[in-house]
Structures are given as structure tokens and as C-alpha cells.
Design brief:
- It comes from Amycolatopsis jiangsuensis.
- Pfam families: DUF5134 (PF17197).
- This is Amino acid transporter.
- Keywords: Membrane, Transmembrane, Transmembrane helix.
- With 202 residues, the protein is mainly α.
- It has one domain.
- Helix content is 71%, strand content 3%.
- The chain has a two-stranded antiparallel ribbon with strand order 1-2.
- It is globular and about 50 Å long.
- The N and C termini lie close together (10 Å).
Length: 202
């Protein structure tokens, strides 16, 4: 979905760093629910990395849909000591992942090549293509895909700014940013990264 190679690498590095931080927090958690939540976040980051690269976009689509749908239910019913905003954000992050994996073939249906290729590409065809070298979007995603993508993008941008503002406010009172501040910043980065990915579905 992302045609710019530089942006792919930026998102890859950001989500790889976020996944590493989530795994670090997972190892430090003492409660089972906390470890599950951090592990799910790490898996979500891994899913975002694969989604950024055309060759891996079709990797295990059905298992991903099942996994992230179950993860959305997990965060919806598990408090984990977080407030309503964090629960809503985590739930929509996982639901958004499941939706993107499910809806991606629809959003990709209008993709054609610039070198004589016409007609929509199938999932197997676009999976191995380098969209950064001569691929362009010549069609439009279905209306319902656009509506959901825009709504998710707006939410993730707003949520990301909230998380980052909380991180900045907390950092002002610290001589050296701690794990809590880093966690808030990571939430913000993950949310803004999700916004970039959902925006590519439009």
C-alpha cells in the first residue's frame, strides 16, 4: 500500500522499535493479563511491518484477522488498570488491524501498472510487486472502505497526539524520562503509524 521506499523504512524502524519496547515491558510484567497485552501489542507492530512491504502483505491473512479480532475483544473486556481512553484506543488499534488485513484486497483492486498492465490485480499478483517502482493507484477503493479508513485515520491521529502530549507533560517533571514516559510516547508513535497505514487505504 505504501509506494515510497523511504516511508516504508521509517515505519518499519518505528514499529520494530515499538515491538522491542513492548517485549521489554512484557518481560517485566508480573501479571498474566499485562504480559498478554504487551505481547499482543508486539504482534500488532510485527503485523504493521509486514503490511508496509508488498511482498509480505498477503502473509497469513486469515490467521491475522482471527488473531487481531480476538485481540480487540481481549482489550475490550480486560481493564488491565487502564482508563476508558486507553481501552478504547487499544481495542480500536487491534480492530483496525483486523479490518485492514481483511479490506486490503478491496483497497488494492484499483491498482494497475504503469507499463501497460490494465485491470485490477489479484492478491497473489500484487503481493510480489514493488509498488515503489512503477506502480500507481489508478482506481478508487469502495466507498465503505474509504469511510472506515478516514474515520480510523482521524481517530488514530487524535489519539496519537493525546498520547504524545501526555508523554511531553510527564517528561517535564522528570530529570530523565522513565519507562512510563517512554510507554506514553510509544503509544503515540504506534497510533500515528496506524494513521499513516489507514490513510493509504483511501
Amino acid at each position: 500500500m505504501i509506494t515510497d521506499l523511504g516511508l516504508r523504512w521509517i515505519l518499519t524502524l518505528l514499529f520494530a522499535a515499538a515491538a522491542a519496547f513492548c517485549l521489554y515491558r512484557c518481560a517485566r510484567r508480573t501479571r498474566f493479563s499485562g504480559r498478554v497485552s504487551e505481547g499482543l501489542h508486539a504482534l500488532m507492530c510485527a503485523g504493521m511491518v509486514t503490511m508496509a512491504w508488498p511482498a509480505t502483505m498477503d502473509f497469513a491473512r486469515l490467521p491475522q484477522i482471527v488473531l487481531f479480532t480476538a485481540a480487540a475483544v481481549w482489550f475490550a473486556v480486560t481493564t488491565g488498570g487502564h482508563g476508558w481512553f486507553a481501552r478504547t484506543h487499544h481495542t480500536l488499534m487491534m480492530a483496525g488491524m483486523a479490518w485492514m488485513v481483511f479490506a486490503m484486497p478491496l483497497a488494492m483492486a484499483g491498482m494497475t501498472g504503469m507499463t501497460g498492465m490494465t485491470g485490477p490485480m489479484t492478491g497473489g499478483e500484487h503481493a510480489g510487486m514493488d509498488m515503489g517502482s512503477g506502480m500507481t493507484m489508478t482506481g478508487h477503493a469502495p466507498g465503505h472502505v474509504v469511510v472506515v479508513a478516514v474515520a480510523l485515520t482521524v481517530f488514530f491521529v487524535a489519539a496519537g497526539l493525546v498520547w504524545l502530549s501526555r508523554a511531553i507533560d510527564r517528561a517535564r517533571g522528570e530529570q530523565r524520562p522513565g519507562r512510563r514516559t517512554a510507554g506514553l510516547a510509544t503509544e503515540g508513535v504506534m497510533s500515528l503509524g496506524m494513521a499513516v497505514m489507514t490513510l493509504t487505504m483511501v
